[in-house]
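Render GNAT family N-acetyltransferase in 3D.
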Amino acid sequence: MIIRPALATELPALRTLETAAGAPFHDVGMASVAEDEPPALPVLAASLRAGRLLVAYEEGGPDGGLAGYLMWEPVDGATHIEQVSVAPAYAHRRIGQALIDRAGADGGDRPLTLTTFREVPWNAPYYARLGFRPLTDAELTPGLRAIRAHEAELGLDRWPRLCMRREAAG
């Protein structure tokens, strides 16, 4: 597997991958999440310009081998994982884990944070297996509070959500 910074020419393919990766939300009664628009090209391009967009490829794989991507941003001294998605054809191969680990390494000696659905098996339970722990309300930083407020405005609080954190490896 190859993990590297994304290229501008790959941005449309990341949107396609995101749509496919979201389809399983239909199976857990979350159609609006499954049908949500992927990040817009200008959003992806801004992350690309900031050096905060990674892609994973598996040589010789389907769809040219594009297996996943991760977009992150700095939030209150942490590397906040804004989006991590794996193409369904590459599920269960630890590609998400590899992207998260690389974002942690690229982010320096900072913790990783994310927001996620509490009860979706490939969300909070998955991240817990990768060493993330749920944050209490008292532990939320101002930046995480702002992210959660924005998610609530988008209607994502229809389902239980939480913030999680993994300490820096070093």
